[in-house]
Fold:
Amino acid sequence: MMRRPAAAVVLALFGWTLTACTPKPVPILALAVRDGKPVGVIVTCPRMFTILGVREASRKSTSPGEPPLANWAISGMADSDLVEVTLFGAAPQGWQVDNNSGAPVSPGNLDVVLDPLTQLRPGIGYSLHGMARYHSYEVDFTTDDLDRIGPDQVLGSTDEGTTKLMSRAGFLRAARGHCD
Structure:
């Protein structure tokens, strides 16, 4: 368990709590499966700071006396318009694993308690989250969803923020339209 304020938490705070000042999230994030492992896929604009992560979705915040949030994330500058990372794997070259990135925090509590998330467990709900030029809709899933995702498919979100299975090509075509 770790207890420390982090710049990425502050960035996430502004991104996820000041929605009146930021554009509506867009569907630029999806979950794929490669070699039996979950892979986060985010469409970015080149040379944009990008965050991609996963957290337990059962709780969106912590309160005194509650167990810590479990979160895993990476952050860095995107070299291309497509970033694909095996969850809990190594970060792309030049990126860093940052278990604080994207964690929901309240404005009065920037000293958040987090546990690193290191694996997915059956029966637990998870949210894939990300930010590139825009904030993405989260993609909610469980380990049962991993078996449903075919080799040319992703689990992504729609413009309304609902999660659905879609073709990889269709997801990429729609997501790349948000960088124009």
Notes: The chain is about 15% helix and 35% strand. Residues 7-17 form the longest helix (11 residues).
